[in-house]
């Protein structure tokens, strides 16, 4: 099992689809990295030579922010927005949508699946007399 940027790459997948397991590497960036390292994207991850894995590791670690470094950068960007008092920072602090989505409906995942609806107003447990 190859280990690149602190992530175990799955052996049975093609390297083109295994590289996106690294946080910060998507499909298009994976193709770009493979072209740069001169590695065939249709090869399985377990059939790569040690030299090819080394080339991939060097390119990813030297040229791109991935995994912990990228997560830290994103966290600092959000913290900066909060400290400045920007609108986006306030939305992050309140755990609301940030990018202009509507919140009257369709924001269940951001708000934590809270369903606040008014009932009929009747108290349960009281019997009619």
Give your account of this protein's structure.
The protein is mostly helical. It has two domains: 3-64, Helicase, Ruva Protein, domain 3; 68-111, Ribosomal protein S13/S18, C-terminal domain (30s ribosomal protein s13, domain 2, Irregular). Helices cover 45% and strands 3% of the residues. It is built from six helices and two strands, in the order E-E-H-H-H-H-H-H. The protein has helices spanning 15-18, 27-37, 50-63, 67-84, 87-93, 108-111, and strands spanning 3-4, 7-8. Strands 1-2 form a two-stranded antiparallel sheet. Helix 2 (27-37) packs across helix 3 and helix 4 packs across helix 5 (87-93). The chain is elongated. The N and C termini lie far apart (73 Å). 12% of the residues are buried.
